[in-house]
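Batch manifest line 366
LIGAND: iron/sulfur cluster
JOB: complex structure
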Amino acid sequence: MMIVRRQTKKIRVGNVAIGGDSPISVQSMTNTNTADIEATVAQIRKLEDAGCEIVRVAVPDQEAAVAVRAIRDGITIPLIADIHFDARLAVMAMESGADGIRINPGNLGGEEKVAKVVDAALCHRVPIRVGVNSGSIEKDLLKKYGFPTAHNTDSLIESAMRNVRLLEKSGFRDIKISIKSTDVLTTVNGYTQLSKLTDYPLHLGVTEAGGLIAGTVKSSVALGLLLSRGIGDTFRVSLTRDPVEEVRVGFELLRSLKIRQRGPELISCPTCGRTRIDLFSLAEKVEALVQTMEAPLKVAVMGCVVNGPGEAREADIGVAGGNGVGIIFKKGEIWKKVAEKELIDVFMSELKKMEHEWYKSSVSAE
Ligand code: SF4
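JOB STATUS: finished
ARTIFACT:
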């Protein structure tokens, strides 16, 4: 199956392009108090290390809007200010150097206020995300179309397009759109319909998706279905967790669809009655290491020496252990046998060597 990407307009958030032929970008949002500059910068730096490409911060008050400047100075990825209701905060955040803003124009208090935000956005060359979600739909639209469901998302779509038209009326076209819902099928239906109506880039997401397992499953199903149909230009996986996990899930999602790859892919067996080592803790150690790596290697962690190498023969390097001995294998062939207690150290050092080789070859190729 080949994914054919929907053609969208290209916009820029700071130095990251969204839409058109640009890579589908992975975003996250901080959960620190934005006014606490030190904590917010520290969290964003961790997100940067995990590969996050655009970060959003909540701007609920003036203190947060002013803090945007110092935060911006302390990070390298583009920063988006998330604003509800208060047009002045949107203007202040842009004056403070925000690379983008997320608003729901219908909530800003009238066309005059929207026009002020648009003026500032044009002046600072800042794009706007029209961020509608199922909880913020205007009353008249709810009355006309009802609450969005898997079968009918007209209220959500009409709300987004109405807000887009409000910006266009003020001469603004640097727009991306999101229509988030907590329900997977409503999300899939809504974005599918919306993609037929507009060529503005789409920011995907399932709102309030849940904790690590439920949130990952909901986001992966909804975003996976949409991305596999070529819909979506950027996204955030929302989790009630450390936002770093959102970024990890985001890249795994892109990797699983063969859209983008960042860092090694970890393959590990589910274990069975043949397992003779503590595979869970071995897999955890290897996972922690590969999360800091960038080389696109396939790394396997298998529970037995008899079947492990064969079952993971596509892995560039793998480890399998049992009964006091472990083996390290490459492409299905045994490379080295070692005592189990030395297994992890020898494996890690070989893995690092392979990453170094990859790094050297990618630098010389540039
Ligand atoms: S690799 Fe070995 S331990 Fe793991 S599932 Fe396969 S047979 Fe079982």
